């Protein structure tokens, strides 16, 4: 199953339909699977005297503006997702045809919202930043059979998150502690540092099913949530690196792949006749040696002289000719 790459637009649209549509187009061109916005209504998040209430109010957009953003996503060939914070934002996300919603850690204990989100959407991401493991277990247990719609996104936004605070090894620990639950990673490395280009790749071997990274139209504009964001060109490289890492992981089984079998035939020495070999006498040690040699397609050469010496042949073999498995009695 391919990793879902989420272009996190978050609050970077700053209440502007135009900016939101540009972020959608940027995410689509960069190759993300989802573009995700925070669907903000201030009174769903905070009290009027909260320090960021006015910021939240400035992010509010009318429903028809969000409909235009969803239409842009449809034209651009990218699915949408939204952080929701209450009944109003959840209902709008549903009406906009979102593929998924995310429950921010701020609403981790908002059981009614979580329950309605699981009922309304086929996929629900949730953040557990600052949440204890036993609390996460109870969260999943409360979801019951509907937990198969959940994906836990590991990580948190410290604007930006220091490299050492990512604790990627916890992804494996969470998977072991919460069997069956899908785990993803939220990459909040500072957008301008080298780690921002490859940190998400390190999460791939831990079996994550989703990776979220912020996107911005232009870092120099210093829009909301841009501190951890990549511009569209760097985001496209980020996507390519994750896809390459997925391919490089390959399979866990130890059977030789077609490429490995081809390498084996080309590189591993085979048993060849050191002299003409007849059909009557058992092969002696000095009569065979190991060399690279041209091979017949579809026939399996012998590689281990110990499996050849003492055996009899079904046919005559010329000096320098490989011994094949089908030649031996």
Q: What is this structure's SSE topology?
A:
Layout lengths: L3 E7 L6 H14 L3 E5 L3 H4 L7 H6 L4 H14 L2 E6 L2 H9 L4 E4 L7 H10 L2 E5 L5 H11 L6 E5 L14 H9 L4 E6 L11 H5 L6 E6 L13 E2 L1 H18 L8 H10 L2 E4 L14 E4 L38
Parallel strand pairs: 1-2, 1-8, 2-3, 3-4, 4-5, 5-6, 6-7, 7-8, 8-9
Antiparallel strand pairs: 10-11
Give a nutshell description of this structure.
With 329 residues, the protein is of the alpha/beta class.
Describe the fold and architecture.
- This protein has 329 residues and is of the alpha/beta class.
- The protein folds into two domains: 246 residues, Aldolase class I (TIM Barrel, Alpha-Beta Barrel); 70 residues, Type Iii Antifreeze Protein Isoform Hplc 12 (Alpha-Beta Complex).
- Helix content is 33%, strand content 16%.
- The protein has eleven helices and eleven strands.
- The protein has an eight-stranded parallel barrel with strand order 1-2-3-4-5-6-7-8, surrounded by six helices.
- Helix 1 packs parallel to helix 4, helix 1 runs parallel beside helix 10 and helix 5 packs parallel to helix 6.
- The mean pLDDT is 96.
Beta-strand share of residues: 15-25%
- The number of strands is 11
Shape: elongated
CATH homologous superfamily label of the largest domain: Aldolase class I
Number of helices: 11
Largest sheet: 8 strands, parallel, barrel
CATH topology of the largest domain: TIM Barrel
Radius of gyration over all CA atoms, rounded: 29 Å
Helices and strands, in N-to-C order?
Answer: EHEHHHEHEHEHEHEHEEHHEE
How are the strands of the largest sheet arranged?
A: 1-2-3-4-5-6-7-8
Task: Report the CATH C-level class of the largest domain.
Answer: Alpha Beta
Q: Quickly give the CATH architecture of the largest domain.
A: Alpha-Beta Barrel
Mean of residue pLDDT values: 96
Number of domains: 2
């Amino acid at each position: 199953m391919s990793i879902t790459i989420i272009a996190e637009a978050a609050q970077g649209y700053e209440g502007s339909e135009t900016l939101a549509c540009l972020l959608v187009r940027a995410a689509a061109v960069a190759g993300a699977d989802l573009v995700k916005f925070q669907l903000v209504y201030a009174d769903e998040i905070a009290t009027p005297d909260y320090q960021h209430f006015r910021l939240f109010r400035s992010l509010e957009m009318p429903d028809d503006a969000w409909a235009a953003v969803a239409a842009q996503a449809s034209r651009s060939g990218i699915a949408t997702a939204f952080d929701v914070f209450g009944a109003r934002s959840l209902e709008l996300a549903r009406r906009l045809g979102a593929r998924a919603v995310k429950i921010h850690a701020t609403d981790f204990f908002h059981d009614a919202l979580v329950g309605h989100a699981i009922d309304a959407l086929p996929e629900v991401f949730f953040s557990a930043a600052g949440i204890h493991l036993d609390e996460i277990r109870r969260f999943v247990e409360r979801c019951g059979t509907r937990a198969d719609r959940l994906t836990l996104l590991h990580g948190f936004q410290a604007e930006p998150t220091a490299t050492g605070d990512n604790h990627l090894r916890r992804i494996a620990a969470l998977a072991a502690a919460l069997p069956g639950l899908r785990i993803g990673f939220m990459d909040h490395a500072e957008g301008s540092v080298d780690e921002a280009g490859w940190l998400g790749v390190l999460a791939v071997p831990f079996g994550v099913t989703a990776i979220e990274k912020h996107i911005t139209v232009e870092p120099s504009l210093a829009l909301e949530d841009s501190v951890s964001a990549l511009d569209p060109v760097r985001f496209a490289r980020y996507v390519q690196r994750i896809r390459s890492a997925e391919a490089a992981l390959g399979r866990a089984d130890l059977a030789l792949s077609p490429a490995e079998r081809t390498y084996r035939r080309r590189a591993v020495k085979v048993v060849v006749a050191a002299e003409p070999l007849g059909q009557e006498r058992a092969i002696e040690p000095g009569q065979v040696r190991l060399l690279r040699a041209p091979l017949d397609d579809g026939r399996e050469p012998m590689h281990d002289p110990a499996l050849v010496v003492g055996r009899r042949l079904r046919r005559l073999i010329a000096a320098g000719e490989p011994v094949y498995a089908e030649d031996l009695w």
